[in-house]
Amino acid sequence: MKTQSCVEVKNEWGIVAARQAGRSLSKEIGFGSVDQARITTAISELSRNIYLYAKRGEICLEVVEKPSKIGVKKGLRIIAQDQGPGIPDIRQVMVDGFTTSGGMGAGLPGVKRLMDEFTIDSEAGEGTVIKATKWLR
Amino acid sequence: MKETVQNLEETYKHILKMFLHQKSEHGLYEAQQFSKVLLEHQVSPEELISVHREVLEELFPTIAEEVLDSLDLLLEVMMGYGMAYREHQSLRDRQLELESEIEVAANMQQTLLPKEIPSIGSLDIGVISVPAAKMSGDYYHYIKDDNQSVGVAIADIIGKGVPAALCMSMIKYAMDSLPEQRLQPAALLENLNRVVEQNIDDNMFITMMYGSYDSRTHEFHYSGAGHEPGFFYFAKHDQFEELFAKGIALGVSRDAKFREYSRKIETGDLIVFLSDGVTESRIGDRFIDREEIIGLIRNYMHLSAQEVVESVYYELAKLQDFQLKDDFTLMIIRREV
Amino acid sequence: MNLSIRYENKADVVVLYVAGEIDAYTAPKLREELIPLAEKGNNVKVDLSDVQYIDSTGLGVFIGALKATDANNSRLTLVGMSQRVQRLFTITGLDEVMAIEEEEGSK
C-alpha cells in the first residue's frame, strides 16, 4: 500500500505546510529527532527553490520500503516537482559553493548530503523533478 | 583512533554530567579538546544538540518543558551551521585536489624549462623567471645549433594547470625538432599556431616572442605573436628602443601569418625579452612606466647579463613588497664580441 | 575585483554594459553572461567605457566569445575602450580580428 500525500507550494505558507507534513510523517515512520530535522530541512530547501524559481509546484511525500538484512527497511521519499523554467546546467547547480539565493551550505549539494538517495531531472523550459529518500537506520 | 558515534555520545554525556556536577575550568578544557575529536569524526552540530537534550532530560526529569523546547528551536537553527560546515569540508577536499593538479603541472613545467643557459661564444645571456603563484604561466626556452646560433623564445600561456604545461611542451617540441625553421621565426610561429589552435580550449591563448641570433652575421631575426614588447639597446647611440613584432597571439586564428623582422646587433648591444609581469609592475596604485624599466636596466647595465636581470627583478619586486601579481620573466642577451 | 554587468536588448543587437575590472576573479562572471549570448547567434556589442583594467584572462573570455559568434555567423563588437585596454588588444593582435568601435552611439 503506497500512500502519497502532496502539498502545493506557491507561497511561504506552502513551505511551512510541507515542512509540517514532513515532520509528522518522519515521526510516524520512526525517525529520531535529528533525522526528523534533516528531512524537514531538506523539504524546506526544496520547497524554497520551488517558491523562488518556479513560483509554484508541489512536494509529495511517501513511505517507501526496501529489503534489508533483517527483513524490510522503511524510509521516506520526498518528490519535489514543478513546471518552472528548469535548470539549464544541472552540473553547475550540483557543485558546492554555487548558490543564487545566498546562504552558505544550502543549495542542492547540501540537500543531497542530508538524505541517503538523491536524483534530479530537469529540462530548460519544462520543469524540474527532484527525488530524495532517507532510510531508517 | 576511530570512535563509534555511540562512544562519542557517551563521552559527551560523561563530560557534561561531570561539568554540571562540579563546574571547573578543567571541565571546560576537556570539552574544548573533545570538540576536536567530534570534528574529526564529523559529528554535526544538530546531532550534538540532540545528545545534549537527552542528557538534560535524563539528569533533570522535572526540567521545564520550555527549556527542552528551546533546544528544539536551537537544533533547527544549528542545521544551517551543519550544512555550512559540510560544504566547507567538501570545498576543502576539492581545493586539495586542485592543488595537487597544479603540483603535477608545475613539475611538468620544471622538466620543460632549460636546465642551463647555453654558452655561445659571442653572447652573454641572463634570465630570471619568477611565478606569482605555485605555477608560472610564463615559459622560456633556448635552442642552440651547430653553427653557434641560438634560438630564444619567451611565452606567456593564458590558462592554468596541466593544459598550460602541455602548451609549454608544444613550444619546446617545435623549437627542438625543427632545425630548418630556427632561422625562420615566422614559419616556426605559424606551425606552432596551427598546433596550438587545434589543441587548446577556446578561452586559452599564448603570447610569444621568438628570435634567432645568427653568430656568423650577428643578425637577430625575430617574430612575435601578441607578446609584450621588449627592448633593444644600441651601444653606439646609447639608446633604448622598443622591440615589438606585430602578430596575433597563438591559438586564436588558425591561419595566422606572422611577420619577420631583422636587426643587426653590434658589440655592446642588448636584446631584452620580457613578460607582462614586468611591465605591469605596480608602484602604489599606478602601473610602472616603460621608461622607468629602461632606467633600472641602465643602472645595472655595467654588470653581467645575469646580474642585470636579477638586480632589475629585485628592484621591481621590492616596489611591490615582494607580492607579485603576475608571473615575472626577464631575459637579456648582450653581444660581447 | 569588482565587476558589474547589465544588458539591453536593442533592435538587432544585445548590448552588454560592463563596469569594473575583468581579471582572473571576475572573468568567469563575464563568461557566464557573454558566451551564452554569443552561442545563441545574437549580434553582441560589449560596452567597455567603465572598464578600468582587463588582464589576459579577460582577453580569453573575448576570444572565446569571438569564436562562438564566428561559428554562429553573428557579430561581436567592442566599444568604448580606454587607452590602456586598447593597447592590450593592439599588442596581442586581437584588434585585427575583432570589431572595435570608438564610441558607443547612444547609451
TrEMBL record, chain A:
SUPFAM superfamilies associated with the record = ATPase domain of HSP90 chaperone/DNA topoisomerase II/histidine kinase (SSF55874)
Domain Histidine kinase/HSP90-like ATPase: where? 34-137
Gene3D superfamilies to which the protein is assigned, alphabetical: Histidine kinase-like ATPase, C-terminal domain
Q: Which InterPro entries does this UniProt record tie to the protein?
A: HATPase_C_sf, HATPase_dom
**SMART domains (alphabetical):** HATPase_c
Domain of life of the native organism? Bacteria
What name does this protein carry? Anti-sigma regulatory factor
